[in-house]
Amino acid sequence: MPLVAIVGRPNVGKSTLFNRILGRRKAIVDDVSGVTRDRIYGTASWGGKDFTLVDTGGLDPDADSGIFSLIRRQAVVAIDEADVIIFVLDVRSGLTPSDIEVASILRKTDKPVIVAANKAEGSSREHESAEFYSLGMSRVYPVSALHGNGVGDMLDDLTAVLPERDQMVDAAHDVAIAVIGRPNTGKSTLINRILGEERLLVSETPGTTQDSVDTLVERNARRYLLIDTAGVRRRSRINRNLERYSVMRSIASIERCDVCVLLLDSVEGLVEQDVRLAGLVEDRGKGLIVALNKWDLMEKDHQTFDGMCRDIRQDLFFFSHAPILSLSGLTGLRVGRIFDAVESVHQEAGKKVSTRVLNDLIEEAAQRYQPHVVRGRRVRFYYATQTGTHPPTFLIFTNRPREIRENYTKYLERRLREELGFQGSPIRLKFRRGREDGGRDKR
To answer: Among residues 28, 95, 131, 394, which is most buried (max CB within 10 A)?
Structure first.
């Protein structure tokens, strides 16, 4: 689809305009300069035309070091990719030297530039926006991204200059992968390595990626949606609304994906926050792969990997079946194996079991280890059937559904895994009152 990039110096309201055009709150909006760090993508539609909208970090021409230099570089990449550019200015602040520098950069692109004079809520603000014509742009649109004033008129003219595309890119994907983990474990570096380009901002500062970022990549005729999430910190350290919102975004990314790659720092190993994050994955029924990143920095011998796997499986006992990989996003060591593991976990989560095989297995499990007795009557299983996939879900009819103990449920799950697999995927067992003839007991 045609691509429209929103650019401008920091804190002029780019993310607010981005959210206004999309019609939903996708970009983080905060009054702190430099909040939007990576390029954030979304699909927008206006006047029957669809286009991809990109929200960028603040374009500060004077930034030559630190995080703002990286933000500037990302914004420049977005400009290079774009077909049309929305240049956002702040009416309240008026024309600044930085605005003039950004306008100079944009004029050199030889691309259509739409000037949005933002925060023009009143008639006087609209009058004040006239000074922006001195930048040499064809038309200035007084808008209020917060309230929506003037945005429609701007979009009418924007869609008129969008290039026509004979072939639209199919954005459908086969598998969605969320790369999750604590801050500074190398999530963005790993995705950059996979993509072979500097798609995500990378910095040594923990917590650099604050939004979740989607990227489509094709490999072996399969399309993968990569979701790079904000690093999740311990709750006690989430003391600002911005970071709290980023954690919510990470959790939402888990819900959107099919398979999660839990990225660990090999040097630090598994910590309590990693276990809690894996618990969120299990709770939401998603597949999991554990990836030991920065393996190139490890002091190791032939027993190091096996020892770490043993410790991880012990601590992640509820995901002890998940594949574990060692890799390096920085050097590319074994990065390609992620896709093989993702395909394996996704296939396992989508596996269907015949009713006959399932009932034979439940019956054999009950004979090997009989269910407990409740008030003089033994728990009995009458009939089982699979009711869903992703995660595999099974419904078992029994005489006492509310009396099934957790340890026996875990035993049944373990037997299903031993016989049927489901590596890397949670299993859901549901119990319902039924009769011995297979019918449902309506009592």
So the answer is: 28
What pLDDT sits at residue 168?
40
Higher-pLDDT residue of 374 and 26 is 374
Q: Check which CATH number belongs to the domain holding 75 and give it.
A: 3.40.50.300
| 402 token code pair | 């509310």
Query: pLDDT for 252-281, tens place per residue?
Result: 788 889 999 999 999 999 998 899 889 989
Report the residue count for the chain: 443
If DSSP codes are grouped into helix, strand and coil, which group holds residue 271?
coil
Three-class secondary structure of residue 423 per DSSP:
coil
End-of-domain residue from the set 101, 127, 160? 160
| Cα 386 from Cα 158, distance rounded (Å) | 51
Q: Domain limits at 88?
A: 3-160
| Predicted confidence (pLDDT) at residue 167 exceeds the cutoff of 50 | no
Nearest Cα to 288, choosing from 310, 315, 316, 249? 316
Cis peptide before 142 (omega within 30 of 0): no
Q: φ, ψ for residue 156 (rounded to 5)? A: -60, -45
Q: What is the pLDDT of residue 251?
A: 75
Evaluate whether residue 169 is within a structural domain. no
Q: Which tokens sit at 214?
A: 């989607």
- Structure-block tokens of residue 27: 């970009």
The sheet that has 84-90: what strands, in order across it?
40-46, 49-55, 3-7, 84-90, 113-118, 140-142
More confident residue, 181 or 42: 181
Task: Specify whether 72 is located in the same domain as 217.
Answer: no
Alpha carbon distance 170, 153 (integer Å): 29
pTM, 2 dp: 0.69
Provide the pairing of β-strand 287-293 with 222-228.
Answer: unpaired
Give the count of domains, the chain: 3
Give yes or no for a contact between 401 and 443, defined as CB atoms under 8 angstroms apart: no
The DSSP bridge partners found for residue 176 are 225
* Residue linked to tokens 């910190």: 233
